[in-house]
C-alpha cells in the first residue's frame, strides 16, 4: 500500500461540494483514510494501491488550486485505515486563534530539513544563535519520539499550545525556535501565531517530521513519529511500528 500525507492552504468557497467530489473519487479508487476540507484548504491521509493513489493526486492537481500540492509518501504491507472518512470542518486543524492562517497572514518563515540538520550538527544557526526545537504535538504523540532535546509541552490538544508555551517564552527569547510537527500543518499555524504574538525568532520545519525523515533520516531524532493510522508510528526509514492492520 502507498500511503500519503498532504495538506494545502487555499481558499475554498464551497467546501461541502469539494468534499463530496473528493470522497467519490477516493471511494471509486478503493482508497481509505481521511479527507478533511475547510474554507482554508484540505488535509489528506490516504492509502491504497500505487496507481490508485497517483491517479487521485493527478486528478486533484488538475484543479489549479491544488497544482502545487506537496505530498509525503510512505509504504505499508497492508491497508492501515479501516475505512474512508470525509469531513468538512471550520479549520483543517483546529487551533481557534487569530493570526494563524497562511491565507490571511502569509506563510511563516521556514527552514529546510538539510539546513536544520546542519544547524543541529554544529549546535547553532547561521547567525550563531542557539537552536531550540519546539514540538507542537500532544503528549501522546511525542511519547513515541521527538528531536533530541526538544521542548515538549504537556498538552492533549493543539488548542492548548499558547497557554502551555507561555512559561517558556522568556527563555526562548535569544534562540532561533524551530516549530515542528508530524507533517507541517500544526507547526505552520503555531509559527504564524507566535510571530504575530511577538515571537519574531520562530521558524517552521518545512514538511514536518515526515519531510525531515524523507530528506535527512534520523539524525538528531530519538524514536519514531506517531501517525494517525493503524501503523501507529514510523521510524526514520518510514517503516511502521505495526504493519499488519487491515
Task: Please explain how this structure is put together.
With 246 residues, the protein is an alpha/beta fold. The chain is 28% helix and 24% strand. The model has no long low-confidence stretch (mean pLDDT 95).
What do the pLDDT scores average to?
A: 95
**Amino- and carboxy-terminal Cα gap:** 11 Å
State the shape: globular
Instruction: Find the structural class using helix and strand composition.
Output: alpha/beta
Task: Write down the secondary-structure element order.
Answer: EHEEHEEHEHEHEHEHEHEEE
What is the radius of gyration? Answer: 18 Å
Comma- or semicolon-separated keywords:
246 residues; alpha/beta; five-stranded mixed sheet; four-stranded parallel sheet; 13 strands
